[in-house]
Amino acid sequence: MRSKSIFFYKVCLLFLSIGMALMGVGVLIVQAKGWEQSVASPGEGKSPNAPGTITGTVTYTGTITGTHMVWVGAFTSTQGVPPAFSVMRDGPGPYSLADVAEGIYYIMAGMDADDSGGPPDPSIDPIGLYPNNPVTVTDSTLITGVDIALYDPTPPPTDTGSILGWISYTGQISPTHHIIVFVTRWGDQAPTYFSVIPGAGSYTITNVAAYTYTVGAFMDLDDDMGPPQPDEPFGWYDPLGDGAPDLVVVDEGVQVMGIDIILADPLHYIYMPRVSRADAP
Fold first, then answer.
1. Same domain, residue pair 44 and 115
2. Per the CB 3.0–4.6 Å rule, which of 52, 106, 263, 271 could disulfide with 75?
């Protein structure tokens, strides 16, 4: 069960963590105010040789009218850093990120729907990301077709409940690291909701639509908000103790409490050669 879960969560949690951060979880904080067009801040460095260029088109589908500033940023991390390179334009359309230093980047874009000039507000501003992130820029690279679609923010569902619980860990890793708790609709593979807590302790996941779910968690040893790795402590909500996730039923307006999870260190096997006695002839 664990090996299967690691496989599909490694595929989807990286992009889920980015997407949920854009929805206001707080993993990614995009600092839009004061950006300069296609320029890296000091220390984030233009390439001294031949920098690369990233081009594409930003599109928008939604109900917002008028022309508003659209930004595109190249981020080196999904952990709340400002973009290393950025460009702004009036409304959706083609863009070009020039003078991009060699490296690996996550390309994201957004629209300042309320013309505030401040940091993006995920509850108001359309925000999107390049679906094939990350992109790799090498010397003199021209990367085309990095297209990003913007859509209106999805309002939170009204008929929702909450999941509350406690994450415990008594393993050998010290100090502890961020813990990611994820909630998956029964029958699906990709997690539907998730929460990040600074270490073992209580968690709350709100605005959970009425349905049946499984709940799991893992300790992010690299603190990179990436997918779980085989050496990271992992656990399911499993009160039966059979190693398989047990179901959690969420009803409208109900707080489901006591969804506690124990994180366990992965098993490590040591090869011990078998020694047999050899009688002398």
1. yes
2. 106
193 in the same domain as 147? no
| Rounded-to-integer distance, Cα 54 and Cα 98, Å | 7
Q: How many CB atoms lie within 10 A of CB 222?
A: 11
Match 């010397």 to its residue by tokens: 139
Burial of 81 (0-12, 13-18, 19+ CB in 10 A): middle
Between CA 83 and CA 263 the distance in angstroms is 34
Q: SS3 of 225, please?
A: coil
What's the rounded Cα separation, in Å, for the pair 144 and 183?
36
φ/ψ of residue 116, rounded to 5: -80, -25
Q: What gap in Å lies between CA 90 and CA 107, rounded to an integer?
A: 18
User: How far apart are the two ends of the chain, measured CA to CA in Å?
Assistant: 50
**Do 60 and 54 form a contact (C-beta atoms < 8 A)?**
no
Select from 169, 171, 213 the least CA-distant residue to 190. 213
What are the pLDDT tens digits along the chain (281 aa)?
333 333 233 323 333 343 433 333 333 333 333 333 333 333 344 444 568 999 999 999 999 999 999 999 999 876 667 899 999 999 999 999 999 999 999 999 999 999 988 888 888 899 998 999 999 999 888 999 999 999 988 776 678 899 999 999 988 887 778 899 999 998 887 888 989 998 899 999 998 999 999 999 999 887 777 777 888 999 999 999 888 899 999 999 899 999 999 999 987 544 445 555 555 55
Residue 54 and residue 31: Cα distance in Å, rounded?
Answer: 20
Q: How many domains does the chain have?
A: 2
